[in-house]
Specification:
- It is elongated, with a radius of gyration of 32 Å.
- The protein has two domains: about 1-50 and about 275-405, no CATH class; about 100-230, no CATH class.
- It has 14 helices and 14 strands.
- A hairpin with a 2-residue loop joins strand 10 and strand 11.
- It is about 55% helix and about 15% strand.
- Keywords: Cell membrane, Membrane, Transmembrane, Transmembrane helix.
- It is a multi-pass membrane protein.
Length: about 400
């Protein structure tokens, strides 16, 4: 019962000084909000990245001119030669049966139409080959895939994503019909099964045509850089296939043994590692801001509690004179400091989760609740309440009851 009474007195004191308590809670919540908000967004983005990469072909890696995650690769890698179609085709031929090799090039912002129906102007026109489906983990729902002959002859045929099919052919079978995309006409030979979204971008809003036809009609002739996807027969063979592919690509690029690679090779794991490095730097910066804010909030808690001790000196004297022990006074004021910090931490967690998920929602990233970070944030706030509230509580508990009763 005595501890219940101490808790009641602590909450009563906080409620009596609403404005002071609210300002202290606000200062604490700012520090928690900054880290929880950032980590909520990062956790959602990480989950979305894992989901997006899992949709790629299994046991695969990519070869490109530039790194995958880089804001402006031209600053550092602009002098690298393009991966042109003849070189990419030679790489594919040299790899032979070692692995499945897919060549791919794309352009966004394309409008496709059929009769009076049109897609939104963000469709992707993909130039690719017969290994497109396996490399991108797609499946044909109806019809057939692009074939080697389609690529060799540069035929005006296409396979279409599920979203394009729904927009252009809501009530008819698209197979055999002709669509217009990028100013050219293509006969639909296959319908790709739906795959969903990744990082807010639909993976079904595309039309895939033979890469030779893409290069012929999109301009630039053979001088477009190609992305290469290599799929190993199994996970166990992936390292060996990757070593072979690097050697073959160096041969195709005409590099000497002492020359560095003028192309980039990356796997799903390397993409995740790169993303992790970026998010770690963001998290470190957020931790720094949060630490400063929480330190300031802790000092605020101590200051408020010292003011409270001074204002309630006579009350402390009365309680001591009627039998309150030193540990009871210590516990009461310590509880007040911890409650202030925990309420601030709770408000910060709520605001951080809401803010982080709001940013995620704007970027079409799935919303999550970071339980681990929320619990850690509350624990840190509780610790701050104890550390910064201990001295004011000890000072209150150490007051001489006679001197305290004389206080005006």
């Amino acid at each position: 019962m005595i501890y219940f009474e101490i808790l009641r007195l602590a909450f009563s004191s906080l409620w009596t000084n609403k404005l002071r308590s609210s300002l202290t809670i606000f200062g604490m919540s700012i520090g928690v909000f900054s880290i929880i908000g950032v980590m909520t967004f990062i956790a959602g983005a990480k989950a979305q990245l894992d989901s997006g990469l899992s949709r790629l072909g299994a046991n695969s890696f990519q070869i490109q001119r530039f790194p995958a995650l880089m804001s402006n690769p031209w600053q550092r890698y602009g002098n690298r030669p393009e991966i042109k179609l003849p070189a990419a085709q030679r790489f594919k031929d040299l790899m032979g049966e070692t692995a499945k090799v897919n060549l791919q090039i794309r352009r966004g912002g394309i409008i496709a139409s059929y009769l009076d129906r049109r897609t939104t102007p963000n469709m992707r026109l993909v130039g690719t080959d017969d290994n497109f489906l396996s490399s991108s983990n797609f499946e044909i729902a109806r019809g057939r895939n692009l074939g080697a002959e389609d690529v060799a002859l540069g035929r005006s045929v296409c396979i279409i994503g599920d979203e394009v099919a729904k927009k252009l052919f809501p009530d008819v079978d698209p197979l055999g019909l002709v669509v217009r995309a990028g100013g050219q006409m293509y006969t639909v030979i296959g319908l790709v099964a739906p795959k969903g979204t990744s990082f807010g971008e639909s993976q079904d809003d595309f039309i895939a045509i033979p890469i030779t036809r893409w290069l012929a009609v999109m301009g630039g002739g053979m001088w477009r850089t190609i992305s290469i996807n290599v799929q190993a027969p199994s996970q166990e063979l992936l390292p060996a296939v990757q070593d072979t592919a690097v050697g073959v690509m160096r041969q195709v690029r005409g590099l000497e043994p002492e020359d560095e690679n003028n192309f980039e090779v990356f796997t799903n794991d390397s993409l995740i590692a790169t993303f992790q490095n970026v998010t770690n730097m963001v998290a470190i910066g957020s931790f720094g801001v949060s630490a400063i804010a929480l330190l300031a909030a802790g000092v605020g808690v101590m200051n408020i509690m010292l003011v409270s001790v001074t204002e309630r000196t006579k009350e402390i004297g009365i309680r001591k004179s009627i039998g309150a022990r030193k540990k009871n006074i210590l516990f009461q004021f310590l509880i007040e400091a911890v409650v202030l910090a925990l309420i601030g931490g709770f408000v910060g967690v709520v605001l951080g989760v809401v803010g982080g998920n709001a940013v995620s929602s704007l970027m079409n990233i799935d919303m999550i609740f970071p339980w681990g970070w929320a619990i850690a944030g509350m624990a840190v706030c509780g610790g701050i309440g104890v550390v910064f509230g201990l001295y004011p509580a000890w000072k209150a508990a150490s007051l001489d009851p006679i001197e305290a009763l004389r206080h005006e």
